[in-house]
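pipeline stage [seq->struct] | target=PHD-type domain-containing protein | organism=Dreissena polymorpha | residues=61
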Amino acid sequence: MADEYPCVYCERNVGEDDTAISCDECLKWQHLSCETGVSLRQYRKMVKGEVVVEWKCRECS
């Protein structure tokens, strides 16, 4: 990801190697560690396609 993907929580860039999730409503990104409420375990299962996590950022929820 390039610099045009700022975290909606901390406003720092979300890079390609960062653990991050996009809002299902506005499609903006947020670092997993920035109070998403999604655990690393859930995130890893989501990336593998084992679970579907529906998530909205604080602006959309």
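stage status: PASS
auto-comment: The first strand starts at residue 20 and ends at 22. Residues 40-48 form the longest helix (9 residues).
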